[in-house]
Amino acid sequence: MFEFISNLGRWAQLTANLILFGSCFFLAITWQKKAVLEIPSSWLSRLEKGFTWLAALVVIGLVVVLASTTGEATGNVSNALDPAAWQQFIWQTKVGFIALIRVILATILFIVIAGLLRKNRARWHYGVCALFASLPLIAGTFVSHSSADEMSLVSIAPFALHILLAGIWFGGLPVFMLIILNSNREFDKVTRVLNATFLEKFSDMALPVMVLLIVTGLIVTDRMIEDDYHTLVSSPYGWLLNLKLMILMFILAIAYKVRNTWLPLFSQVDINDQIRRGIAHLRKWIRLELILALALMFVATTLANTLPAKHAIIEHWPFPFRFAFDSASEESLDEALFWSGFLLFSIALCLAWMGMHLRWNWKNKFFLPSALAAAAMAIALPPITIEAYPETYMKPQIPLDTLSISHGSQLFAEHCADCHGPQGKGNGRLAQTLSTSPADLLTEPHTVRHTVGNFYHWIAHGVPGTSMPGFAEILTDEDIWDVVNYLHALSRGFDARLLGTMIIPEVPAIAAPVFYYSASDGSSGDLKDFRYKKNTILVFFSWPQSQQRLIQLKHAHERVTQDHNAAILAIPMQQLDQQELLEISDLVPFPVVTEESAEITDTYLLYRRVRAVPDLNGAGLMPVHMEFMIDRFGYLRARWNAQFEGFGWQNINALTQQLALLNQEDEIMPPPDDHAH
Ligand code: HEC
């Protein structure tokens, strides 16, 4: 109920404000002949009478918005009526402050309208009113979803423009309607012709405005969805958006009919019965259009207050399939089919357009393009359709860090390795005995092609008809996500075989698994803390085999850290005793990680492979010493596996050269996400 009232307030205020802005804008630019304005019963007087009421409605609506947002933001509905809570909300939050600014702007608008419109009519009055009416609208965009990510002109301007354009179109409608409703009384010729020019001007303006409105709408929507197109059919935001588009389609259809069929009748000078009937039609449809436009506004305000699609959490995907464009590229035939279908669909659209313009009979106009479009979809969609499950779009609740990955690796060894093999290669002890061979989770690009939600589904529920069992009874939700994170790191780790001692400039591809650590020198932190500051070198060492290397790094320490903007973290690959730890801490000037070193090692071992040594058999080889270079944005860029990659970074120059290259790079991609996906 509370939510409904607050949406109603938003809607009333927005609608009134848009009508004011649009009507004044329209009058300011179409103002031409004084004659219409001097007829006492003219539609203009009626419209102007409405203006003061509308301005009052804007103020009231914005006060309701201020009150209800106070209630929502403080989580206590009764605060909506508590002036003390309002005060706090206004002075302590940006949203509250902007709500107040809007009330003030609306009050000024009210005063301006009441003052100016009482005087004699003049074109500039309407211009000034339109200007003042635009201010509360623009202020509103500062608390929109568009401004939530980033408060900048680029992010707000398209939305502000969208709102103002909506005002120009929607606000012009009442003028349109009043003229037509009044036309009963104004059957003298001069007025009729004048009115007709007004209508035509509006109609001319409406087309480009509508095109721009749709373009800005697409820009705004694209930002709210990002790449999560599936949310269009599975989140409240998506459904509301579809509803909005559907209403818009009806409105456009009516507008098209009005413009092409009925409007020409209206400007006829000689009235006969047929024309009267036509005008009666026009009146009916314009009324319907206005009602639809009001509904559209209601959906739009609700949409503006719904969680944007890109943030929606889809716990339950409603369809047993989904479309994935990368699945088409697997087979060239599939790809060819998809593009032929696409081409056919484009032809269908062209036919539809031609049909409308060349005035084909309705059978050809509708059936031909529809049949072609249906055929196009039948050809294009199957190649990109893949199976999906309710969990397909679920997002992991557990962040992708070494703690989770390492726990996942233990669970995998315990529950999965017998079939899938110790390294996930699909060659476990029992593999030969099974009727279907277990999936290769290491080298095949499974995890890249499937969503993490799919993995969750398979692990929780198994794969029917095969020997892959479900683990929902044995493993907790968190356990399953840990295993999913492990599988994710496993296959990304396999990709890391392409890394070497030299970076590939400008290609950050593999995220460095993050971790929290504490070190022997009392320091502690998060690997993420280095982002945007320093490159990081992780030194995985064995004791005492790595002693020489650690001494070398000690001597190079200043050069690496000071001159080349890097931090060094040493991570023991085996458990060290107190004595050893003291010895090493005395030796090296950089932190030696104590807590979580086992988890960190477990995880980074997955990234150990070099191109020449695929290392797929058995449990895999355990390197003695390896080092990883992470750039300032959190990506693994180079690795030296001392056993297989020769002299490598023992040449400190080779190491610092890579750092110098990294320091020249700017941010290419934002840092990796906290969660697997
Ligand atoms: C009894 C043997 C067995 C055990 C135990 C087992 N799996 Fe499987 N798994 C299979 C088989 C067989 C398949 C292949 C199913 C198919 O053909 O679609 C499979 C398929 C999968 C798939 C689907 C891969 C894909 O891309 O289709 C995943 C993921 C998976 N297993 C993960 C696991 C995990 C994680 C565990 C341990 C928690 C596990 N499996 C335990 C036999 C097993």
Automatic annotation (TrEMBL):
Q: Which GO terms describe its cellular component?
A: plasma membrane
SUPFAM superfamilies hit by this protein? Cytochrome c
**How does the record say this protein sits in the membrane?**
Multi-pass membrane protein
Spans traversing the lipid bilayer: 12-31, 51-69, 89-117, 124-144, 156-181, 202-225, 237-256, 285-304, 336-354, 366-386
Q: What is the lineage of its organism?
A: Bacteria, Pseudomonadati, Pseudomonadota, Betaproteobacteria, Nitrosomonadales
Pfam families the record matches: CopD, Cytochrom_C
Name the Gene Ontology molecular function terms of this record.
electron transfer activity; heme binding; metal ion binding
- The entry's protein name is Putative copper resistance protein D
Q: Does the keyword Transmembrane helix apply?
A: yes
Task: Tell me which positions the record assigns to the signal sequence.
Answer: none
What does the UniProt keyword field contain? Cell membrane, Heme, Iron, Membrane, Metal-binding, Transmembrane, Transmembrane helix
- Report the principal subcellular site: membrane
Q: Which GO terms describe its biological process?
A: copper ion transport
Where is this chain's protein located in or outside the cell?
Cell membrane
Please list the residue ranges annotated as the Cytochrome c domain: 403-491
